[in-house]
# Entry
Amino acid sequence: MNDVRIIKKTGGLGRRADSGDAISGFIANGVAVADKLDLGTVYRVKSIDDVLALGIDAKYDSTNEVLVFEHLNEVFRINPNADVFLMLVAQTVGFDAMVLKTNESYAKKLLIDAEGKIKQLAVAYNPDLSSVSATPTADTTALKAAITAAQDLVKDEYAKHRPLHVLLEGKLWDNTVTLDGSNKDPLNLKLKNAEGVSVMIGQSHSVATVNFGTPEAPIHKFIGYAAVGALLGTVSAAAVNENIGWVKKFNVYGGSLTDAAIEGKLLTEISSGDIETQHGRGAIFYTTHAGKAGIYFNDSFTCTEETSDFAFIENNRVMNKAVRAIRQALLPRLNSPVLVDQETGFLSPAVVKSIEMDGRKALEELLSNQEVSGIDVYVNPEQNILSTSELLVSFEIVPTGTARTITATIGFKNPF
# Structure
């Protein structure tokens, strides 16, 4: 019959499924909690209440002389929407052992159990401090080994189609070492050739100087800790292309962080030259800005040279997200028949167009979210797939820039 038909459309609001960019992992040494938390077991926590339900609270930290609740509390303070796969391991497990690619008892198990969902993994080192009777001595030996192991893990996970970025606690960082090695061999993170790893050395002064002794004989067992939980919270809250040092968006002041420090020293007690040295070594730490209240990150360095395409966390996160999306788009074509031109044997125009459309669709989310500036997909039709059985697709991404330095000019003008 004649009628007026009104067709209801959908999709106009532009709603998208959760990208999963915030899904994170956290592994640390700790102590089991009877009937609540077992070592070596993976737990998924989506709020601080989930953490508390496992028996992890401030008393857990102080009683066991570890920092687990502190880190996780900072994660959820900074990013209340964080989604964290958590594993605690025995305190006898070494820093590098936690992230060994060949050991499926620790970080590798965490990543496998999370089914590749983890995009960033934070690692905190809590060795047994029960015998510590004085302030621990700065020593980056364990950290150096952990950086190497973590980069190997990143490479292995990439090969297994689970790309991620690793954030390490800069345990017992030596604030006194200069780049010329005048005290001892410095740890210049930019020379570690570990583009998939970042090291946090910034601290909350109040946490670093918790006194386990007496006023007359203080024992600061946590003086060598670094706030890797706060770093994880910020990275997980940021869009993949955003620098965690963005002043407008990432003021991390609050909670236990009211005064920033490095190796137990307030920023105000460290010379500007020494701070520039830490920055030049590629370490991530807290900073402040004159005329702007709050505490911020200095930058988003990775442990590689600054000329690398992957010298900053956001470079890695954008690429990792693109790699995941591209694989998801192209995987259905694996082992599929591919039409070729009957005269030349090259790819048919229809096949080329179809593949390029799928490729662009895979990266549409990054483009629409302004996480990249532009994308390009190209399939060369002159491929001899009949002989090689290999289909070559080229993707190019134009990233967004980061205003690391802003230069403005100012002067007087005589309008006469």
Summary: Residues 335-399 form one domain. The chain is about 30% helix and 15% strand.
